[in-house]
Design brief:
With 82 residues, the chain is mainly alpha-helical. It has one domain (6-81). Helices cover 83% and strands 0% of the residues. The protein has helices spanning 2-22, 28-49, 57-81. Helix 2 packs across helix 3 (57-81).
């Protein structure tokens, strides 16, 4: 249970940071958590393809923020084509 709460907390932080860096504002609590969790997945995939990994919380946050920024950038590109 504690690891799940930690996962949600880190997801919220990552989503909030990515929202600040890309759009200038957050997406609300649930939106930040969803962006953060999805960003962590994308970040782990991209960093894994590059042969990079993390071993601590700071690395996980950096990976998650990088993945969330990639995710938000892709979403913005898709929306601009519509």
């Amino acid at each position: 249970m504690i690891s799940f709460l930690w996962f949600i907390l880190i997801g919220g932080l990552v989503g909030w940071l990515a929202g600040k860096l890309i759009k200038g504002s957050g997406f609300g609590l649930l939106g930040n958590i969803l962006v953060g969790v999805a960003g962590a997945i994308v970040g782990k995939l991209v960093f894994g393809l590059l042969g990079l990994g993390t071993s601590n919380v700071i690395g996980e946050i950096v990976t998650g923020v990088a993945g969330a920024i990639i995710l938000l950038w892709l979403i913005a590109r898709i929306r601009s084509r519509s």
